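From the pipeline queue, job 12 of 40. The input is one protein chain; the requested action is below.

Action: predict structure.
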Amino acid sequence: MNEADEPKPLDAVLNALELERVDEDTFVGHSLPQLHGRVYGGQVLAQALLAAGRTVTDERLPHSVHGYFLRPGDLDEPITFAVERLRDGRSFSARRTHAIQFGKPILSMISSFQGQQQGLNHHEAMPHVPGPEALPSSVEMFNSLDHPVGKFFYRTGAFDMRHVDGALFTGPAAQTTDIQYLWMRARGEVPVGELLQRAMLAYACDQVMLEPIMRRHGLSWRTKGASVASLDHAMWWHRDVDVNDWLLYAQSSPSAQGGRGLGVAKVFTRGGDLVATIAQEGMLRVPQIPAE
C-alpha cells in the first residue's frame, strides 16, 4: 500500500468534532461509523466538551468533566448539544451539556473550566515500563488480520495503541491482573489548540478504560457473548496535553461487582508529567456469570 492509499482516520475524527453552531448555546454534530451500530461514547464525550468550551472565554480550559451515558446513540441521527451556563466566576466557569437525539439526552455532562493560575505543584512519579518503540503496534496488528473487523479498525482507528503486556483485541492476556500499561498516540497531526487536545484525550481514552476489568477476569474483546458499555465518566486534566506524542496510560480496576466495574487511568507524558486522571464505570456482563 502506497502513502496515497493509507487510511487517514484522524481526519475523519477531526471532521466529526467540527460542530455546527445553531445559536450561542446550541450545537449540532454527526457520528462516525461503528461496527456495533451505536455512537462511540468517546466521540459524544469529546463533542460535548468542545460545545461547552465554545461558550467560555479562550483562556479558560477544561480541568474536569463528570458525565453519564444515558442511552445508546443512533449513528444516522444528528446530535444536538445544548449547553447551560451554570456559572462564570472570577476563576472558574461551569457548564452543563446535554447531547440530545429524538428529544432525549444520550449524554448528560457537567464540565468546569479554569484559566492559568499559580499554585502548589506536585504529582506522582510515572511507572518504569518499556517505551513504545519496543512494543507491538495496534495499527500493524489490525492491518495484518485477514478479517473484516481487523480491516475496519485499521481504516478507522485514529490512535496507535501499544500495550506493555499484550493487547486484548484477539484474546485474553497471559496473566490475570487488574494492572495495565499502554502507550497511545494519534495517527497523524492534531492541530494546535489545548481545548481540542484535551477533547481528543477524552475521545481516545474511552477505548481502553474498561480493559483492566477484562484483564483481571481473563476476558478479551472477543469473549463470546460479553456485553460491554460505558455508564459514566469522570476526567481531570492537570497539565497541558499533546496527543501527537506518546502518552502512557497507567491503569487499574479497584472493583467489579453486580455487572459493573470501575476502571481508573493516570496519563503521563513521555517526560514523566502527569497530565490527566480518568475514572469510568462500565457495564460488563458475561453469560456464564449471572447478573445480580
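Job complete. The chain is about 20% helix and 35% strand.
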